[in-house]
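JOB MANIFEST
job_type = single_chain_structure
chain_count = 1
residues = 454
[input]
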Amino acid sequence: MNIRSTDFAMNNHIAKRIGFKEAIDYNYLALTGLRLDAGDIYYSADSTLVHVRDASLKEQSGLELKRLTGKVRYTPKEAQLKDFILQTGASQISADLQLLTPSWDIISTNPELMQVKADVRPSQLTLREALYFVPEMRSNPSMAPLWKKRIDLKGKLGGSLAKLEIPGIEVKDNDKNYLYIKGDAYQVTNTDKMGADITTLTLRTTRQGMLSWLPPNTLPAGVQLPGRLDVDGSIRGGMQLLKPNLAVKTDMGNADIRGEVADFTDMDKIRYQLTLDARNLQAGRILGDTAMGNLSGKVTADGRGTDPNKARIKAGVNIYSFAYNRYTYKNILLDATLISGAYAAKGSVRDTSVQARFDLKGRLDTLHPDIVLRADLDKFDLMATNWTTSPLAIRTCLEAEISNLSPRKLEGFAAISKIQIADDKDLYMLDSILLKAGVVDGLQRSISPGHSGT
């Protein structure tokens, strides 16, 4: 079969034209320069074979098919594309694909029996060409970054839909983002049992690369992404359970992420047991706070749910070092729980310049927080921690209870006792400071007895 330089038009004058330029209007098609060179054509009731040696065309929308070649084979047990090349005005796909099945009828009820073999040679996809087919997406601002993307990909996979082996798939874009995965995928047609065993995951990106995928103003003001981000590791599991084991390296510090997340499709039932180990994380640069410096420490979280009023979470924080105001604090420990809106936290600071212990309880209720705080500050060297320029140290105890924060119904107290303030010459001792608020005869009252000392 040979067709050369043929034009074709179809107009449905009853239908209204679509309101988009550079988009295919299926009621008003106009093809020009249609060429087709095909041979080895065979057709029967259940089989089709054709060798497309070359094909090309242009559509009035601007979509252009520059080249189409390949051998097509369809039988009762096989579908195959061999030496397939599709080239448009801005994209090119080069691949071999073979599907094998006991029969096409059985696949509708047992899709896992299908065997797949795919080899995608170096190919390029320009995503803006999708707008020829879905032009309404132009008006979606969250999709705008996609239409600037060119995706390069290559890779192989094979096996059944019950278990696909992925020797390696490599994807990169025109903004220096790179992704490589190797492993196995399981039950890919069953959303309940779908899973993967990604034994090798490699991600390379930059600040500009990450921003290129985000709509404008996505990040909060002041938050800064790292200039370089490398992720290596593995992810095992499926739609019911994921087990990440990832090493993250950036120019703003490094971190390891490991653990497991289960039932993550339901935020009320989600379960997690995760550990984040951060090293030299430049918190100040990330959060835009010049007073902050590097942070190193470990955070663990073991819980269920994400709604603070329903979740049950147990967390631990061990900060090895944290720089603030040009001083590096060390050995900060915190254990906390959150159970259906009730929280509790107990911690300590065992630094050479700051030594403290605290115990905090309460509820996530803006009007009735039921806060109970006990804290002992055994040592706080203000000069060493750069809060003063002359010698000054504080030691004290704090107790506070707040049961009601309603307007004009404030109830609670804060007591500061055993106060000791020392400079390079003298020690000053204050007995106590008490602040108390309550409601008497329906009226808000506040009491501040003051302080006494020597």
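[summary]
The longest strand covers residues 28-43.
The first helix runs from residue 104 to 107.
exit_status = 0
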